[in-house]
Amino acid sequence: MTIAAIRNLTVAFNRKPACRDIDLDLPAGRITVLVGRSGSGKTTLLRAVNRLNECLENSRTTGSVHLDLPSGPLDAYSPATDVENLRRRVGMVFQTPAVLPVSILRNFLLPLELTLSITGPEAKSRAETALRDVGLLDEVADRLDHDATTLSGGQQQRLCLARALALDPEILLLDEPTASVDHRSAEIIENLLRSLTPRLTLAVVSHSLRQARKLADRLLLMRDGRLVGAWDRETGDEAGLDALLDEAF
Ligand SMILES: Nc1ncnc2c1ncn2[C@@H]1O[C@H](COP(=O)(O)OP(=O)(O)O)[C@@H](O)[C@H]1O
Ligand SMILES: [Mg+2]
């Protein structure tokens, strides 16, 4: 089943296309991994799904993204679409952890209150559940009131992932989620991402061959803003995967 149908998508910055004529279906409950050289358009494609490119100046998007989410259908680029609602249903974790310069707990309480109007004990319990899910609760349980910026890079990225999960997204976009963390944190994050499916649909840009091999149910190769290769675990074999990864790295 397709959860996101991307059609004829072109994103340009200052009239220069960063993604060109992309047609892509994201399968529900699976991990789609995007690979390709730096500058090939991976981040831009990911950010097109929940309309984050329009936060950047001089960007222009044409084409469509139709979402068929568990909570119902959503036409991402329809003028009638509430962008906040879209971004709540399609969450994102960025390459460098963007923790808020407030306490660990408030990193959850603020977005929970702002986006879902969840406060009090329920908010705290959601935060703890999400922290447990990313293997961070034991490490921070006695200092939830400490500033989140005092955590290590790997801990901050797991906090960002936990924060995204606490908001209950239906699709999660992850842009090189382990690029700025140590090996151990990367492994924890990868194992966690695997465990999130099939409940959640993931699209992950990966900078690592090893990670792409480990995570991909589908692997997509980008070059110069275009999709130039695809592999699917259900129909492809290891040789096909190797060939595509060879081109990417
Ligand atoms: N905010 C921006 N302003 C201008 N050009 C951009 C911006 N973001 C990305 N680009 C350009 O779009 C192209 C694709 O970038 P990006 O999607 O970040 O690639 P990747 O994630 O594969 O490294 C690059 O040529 C990059 O310079
Ligand atoms: Mg990128």
Which bin fits the share of residues in helices?
25-40%
Overall CATH class? Alpha Beta
The number of distinct β-strands equals 10
Shape designation: globular
3D structure, described in words:
There is one protein chain. With 249 residues, the chain is an alpha/beta fold. The protein has a single domain (2-97, 170-248), classed as P-loop containing nucleotide triphosphate hydrolases (Rossmann fold, 3-Layer(aba) Sandwich), CATH 3.40.50.300. The chain has nine helices and ten strands. It has helices at residues 42-49, 83-89, 106-116, 120-133, 137-140, 153-166, 183-196, 209-215, 238-248, and strands at 2-13, 16-27, 31-36, 59-69, 72-75, 90-93, 171-175, 201-205, 218-223, 226-232. The protein has a six-stranded mixed beta sheet, with helices on both faces. A hairpin with a 2-residue loop joins strand 1 and strand 2 (16-27). Helix 3 (106-116) packs across helix 4 (120-133) and helix 4 packs across helix 6. It is globular, with a radius of gyration of 18 Å. The two termini are 30 Å apart. The model has no long low-confidence stretch (mean pLDDT 96). Bound molecules: adenosine-5'-diphosphate and magnesium ion.
